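Slide 14.
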Amino acid sequence: MEKELGLLDKIVSLSKRRGFIYQGSEIYGGLGGTWDYGPLGVTLKNNIKNFWWKKFVDDREDMYGVDAAIIMNPAVWVSSGHVNTFTDPLVECVKCKRRFRADHISDGKPARPGDTGRSGGCPECGGKVGDPRQFNMMFKTSVGPVDDTSSVSYLRPETAGGIFTNFKNVVDTFHPKMPFGIAQIGKAFRNEITPKDFIFRSREFEQMEIEYFIKGEGWEAHFEDWRKSVLEFADEIGLDKDKVSELNVAKEDLAHYSKKTIDFEFEFPFGKKELYGLAYRTDHDLKSHMNGSGTDLTYFEESTGERFLPHVIEPSLGVDRTVLAILTSAYTEDTLGEGTRVFLKLKPKIAPVKAAVFPLMKNKPELVDKAREIYKSLKTKIPQVMFDDNGNVGKRYRRQDEIGTPFCITVDFQTLEDNTVTLRDRDSGKQERILATELNDLILNKIT
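Slide 15: predicted structure.
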């Protein structure tokens, strides 16, 4: 267990040191459950989102993308059940007044009235904790100039709500044939009682969600297709297969509207936790919004003349948890060269820097100029390229290894003679000389 906790500490340290992830509002002491993505982190996150969008939207004929507003009519969340049921059990320590999710201090067992958590009591001071009470996790806000009950709205606790409210718009505009999906990537907000485990559980996070609309009959085949697609995505972005598993949620634990749910779990440094979810939600969502809004959300199938309320299959993937799972999968230590080397074994297409170009010596203008020329040429075809002349070449290699750069290119005096450069592979450390004119195609091929 100490080794696993040590791994998370190493990932957190590397993330800050190399500009992946910083504590939110750090110069003011931070704000619990909030994190800022630095230059490399935001690029890594965008690469993940762009790959997801390409795979599940751009490369398919049955998918439509939306970007719905974060603040919606509060009636949306009444109809969806979030206002009344989107709660977690909260307990408060009688002694230190700290508050915790009851299920986080009772060894994973469901909290019950009278349950005071572990025998040791409060995880902070050991004091007695009170009875659990339900706490709604939605962030309230006010819309408009008057702060009263009529102005109350919420920051969305999920992105799916905006998909369901736009179902009729997409159908009326594009007349899609059944089955089809609506996809969205966006921020969601949950007032977590106890955010924890770095970016795994935070108050502001990002989701990649799809609602795939189908006829109720034959849902099993669609569900299986999406199960395979989610696993393919996990493999293609470089998640460790040995750390990914599927949990079929037991019937007694399913939401009342779900006929089947799979949690895709990942072995994080702090234990096996949910990474993605896949649920067959029947027609519950459209029915709830049709009843709540008074708008007809049925679908008319021209080929059969049938009108019906579509059912839905929902693959839901968290961006931030994906980032953490990738960092966990990629973090590697070996003994290449002198001492221990730390590197991120990222898939090239996901890595925030695809290649780094070095002049052998930064005090030799002819080498710097040639390196700049090669760097600019690469950047016309491969935007995520870095120019690095800080420190000696050995230190540059280690720095680029640590941020997961797959390829390093060194320009030396031989380059000035025959236009060849040294190309170094991150994983093996192997170096080879190739023509500078071949770099663009070679790196593009390795990335794709």
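Speaker note: The chain is about 30% helix and 25% strand.
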